[in-house]
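As noted in the main text, all predictions were made from sequence alone. Below is one such record, for Phospholipase B-like.
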Amino acid sequence: MARHSAAAAAGGMAAPALALLLAALASATELGKEGSAAYADEMRLRVQANLQAVLPLPWDRIEDRDYMWKTTDLGSTISIASFKLQGTDQPASPRPSVRWGAKGGKEILHYNGVLDPSSELTMLAWQKIRWAGLKAFLQAQMAVDAGKLVVISSYGDVLYGGCSEEVIMFKYNEIIAASGGTQTIVMAAEVSPWPWSLGWRYSRTNFTSFRRADVIAAYSLSSTWESSFSNCTDPSAGPCDSTPKYQYANAGLIMGPVSDIYEMLEGLETYQADANQLANDYYLKHPGTVTLDYAGGLFLSLHNMVSSGGAPVEVQEINGTRALYSSTLGQTVCFVHGNGNGFAALQDMASQMDSSVALRKKSRFAKWFGA
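Prediction:
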């Protein structure tokens, strides 16, 4: 079923001018196993610990700029990685509220009226730092196996839904098959473009609507499945189409071979705009290499997709473990990204998943003492 061969985990390394820590997914082979449950707890704790603070000035953190990372394979095929500020449990990326106008990075207004650095400059500096760390990670993996599959995940605003490695691989391959079969990279989709100007680019591109139709048909979904969840009433949160369509690329979740992801993102070295724009640009220019999860079965994005408290996923108990389940799809969703105004809903899901810790403790107690 897998499209790529497995590789041994790469070791740690150091690099200058970075303040990132790679957090990797522990081994897990099926929902309910200890490794799977432990990673779900880890992701939940990241969400609950997220202070949604502005990014600090990177130039003030010289002592933290040594780069440390480690990786543990998910089963035998997939590694899942995300980055945070070294020495903290906070993301190295802008807070979700940036999507509706909040400042994402610290800025300084000087007595002479000059704003230096601006929030935008601070965010751009951290973007380059994140890329330097990701670049080193991908290069280390490529040295072992260029076809090694990884999932690059946003930190502190993503929950793990409980999919086994086999389920992740099945969904990945299913999306690619429905997209034409040539693609190697799958990204999350979302209902609003970010930056907003990308909406015009998509309106001038024909293949995306046909691609979306093919993928959601593979999941037997309605062509308007998003309508019951989409909520685009807040103009500051970004536009949707007149009939909302879950069709724009979201770089918060990416899966593919390390070499192909490296090729897609290497432009970040000198990029002067948001990384999500680069990922969208690359998708629109390389539809034979990249596709999106238009059904939200592997990756689901929540920005502008929580209407009156209703989200496309809910926390359910499956095989004794709390998982993220989509009644629309009738299956577990592997990763849910609480980007933008979806973060509050994600935090609520994290709180609901918290009880799984007590559930497992109770189960162990009963097993040990015959209760």
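Residues 343-369 form the longest helix (27 residues). Helices lie at 34-49, 119-144, 165-179, 198-203, 207-218, 258-265, 275-285, 343-369. These features were considered when defining construct boundaries for the mutagenesis experiments described in Section 2.9.
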